[in-house]
Amino acid sequence: MKSLYAGLALAASVQAGLRFPCSTLTIQRLDPAVQPGSNPSAHVHHIVGGNAFNVTMTGDVAERATCTTCQMAEDFSNYWTATLYFKHPTNGSYHRVPVLPVQPLLGGSQGASGGLTVYYTQFDLSKDNIKTQPVKSFPPGFRMTVGNPTERSKPHVGIRYQCLTGQSRGAEMADFPSKPCTGGIFATQHFPACWDGVNLDSPDHQSHMYNTIRSDGFMNAPACPSSHPVRVPQVTYETFWDTSKFNSMWPSGTPNPFVWSFEGNSAGSHADYMFGWKGDALQRAMNKSECFYDGCGSIKKQDMTVANKCTVKDFVGEPTDGWLKALPGMA
Questions:
Q1: What is the pLDDT of residues 288-317, one digit of tens each?
Q2: Is the peptide bond between 40 and the residue preceding it cis, with omega within 30 degrees of 0?
Q3: Of 277 and 216, which is predicted with more confidence?
Q4: N or C: which end of the chain has fewer CB within 10 A?
Q5: CB-CB contact of 97 with 85 (8 Å)
Q6: Which stretches of 152-253 are DSSP H helices?
Q7: Average pLDDT in the chain
Q8: At residue 183, what are phi and psi to the nearest 5 degrees?
Q9: What is the pLDDT of residue 281?
Q10: What's the rounded mean pLDDT across residues 52-67?
Q11: How far apart, in whole angstroms, are the C-alpha atoms of residue 230 and residue 52?
Q12: What are the φ and ψ backbone dihedral angles of 13, each rounded to 5 degrees?
């Protein structure tokens, strides 16, 4: 089984890319990337990042945000995923699964409240490739998604789950764990790293990107194709879903009782990204060779006690927690 610390120990010794926590900003049924203008959107999302998050978001997000739940104080991007729910095997009611900060956290980043961990890597976690293939930051207004909530067979490579046991994450899997995990369920979403260099978005929110990922983990990103020639940072999310409180309600030998907020199975894992870094902050970090975690000090960091104070209003006004007879939007 893979230790939570093993991969990070390797990464810390060679230092490439960024890794930082973002506390939870809000949990509600909005999706300004896929369903702009819809209040509410189809299903509940877990959202982190800048307080410019809204029903509709266009243009330079960083210009409108005044705070962020991310440790990097110049990052006003928004990052979100579907929300995980426990479906009671007996009465069919639903309860939202809480999130915990991904451990271990590095560089004085303790104190995150829920949220997820974000990576921006230049090549992989063990080295960069900027001398032969420079990495270009995303421009203002850029957005993308990865994964598909309508998928029912299995997610593509790079979207994976791990069953947490103590300090071990276990093997990466394309499906939810088939038995209770004592430590919870760990979900990872790797975004594509090649951009067409023209479009800030596309009708399906994915065609302007090209996915080079062919194997699990933080693997080398090969050269981009001529159709999508611009190498951008490899964005990855890690979320720690604390499923442990529901283990006693999962009868032995019965199917996995966890569902995504769209009543979807493990195959429908997906994530949305909306760029919102201030000025050239992200580009400065990507220009630094072998600077894991904080870009060799090129980016200003804030204490997580400050980040945790950043909020947005409840635009939808519906319950998303506690025991629910139906998932929000699915009744």
A1: 887 888 878 888 999 999 999 999 999 999
A2: yes
A3: 277
A4: C
A5: yes
A6: none
A7: 91
A8: -105, -10
A9: 95
A10: 96
A11: 27
A12: -75, -25
The Cα-based distances of 163 to 30, 159, 217, 244, 284 in angstroms read 29, 14, 15, 11, 36
Residue pair 172/161 in contact by the 8 Å Cβ criterion: yes
Q: Say what the pLDDT of residue 15 is.
A: 58
Exposed, middle or buried: residue 71 (CB in 10 Å: 0-12, 13-18, 19+)?
buried
For 111-155, the pLDDT digits (tens) are 999 999 999 998 877 777 788 888 999 999 999 999 999 998 888
Q: For the residues of 304-324, what is the DSSP string, one character each? A: HHHHTT-----SS----SS-B
Of 4, 206, 262, which Cα lies nearest the Cα of 117?
Answer: 4
Q: Tokens representing 161?
A: 């789950």
pTM score above 0.90: yes
Q: Give the pLDDT of residue 105.
A: 66
Rounded CA separation 140/254 (Å): 47
Phi/psi of residue 61, nearest 5 degrees: -60, -40
Q: Which residues pair with 203 in a beta bridge?
A: none
Q: Which residues are CB-contacts of 133 (< 8 A; sequence separation ≥ 6)? A: 123, 223, 224, 231
Characterize the bridge pairing of strands 258-260 and 45-49. Answer: unpaired
Report the relative pairing of strands 184-190 and 78-82 from DSSP bridges: unpaired
Structure tokens at 310: 């950043």
Average of pLDDT values for 45-54? 98
Tell me if 308 sits within 8 A of 121, measured CB to CB. Answer: no
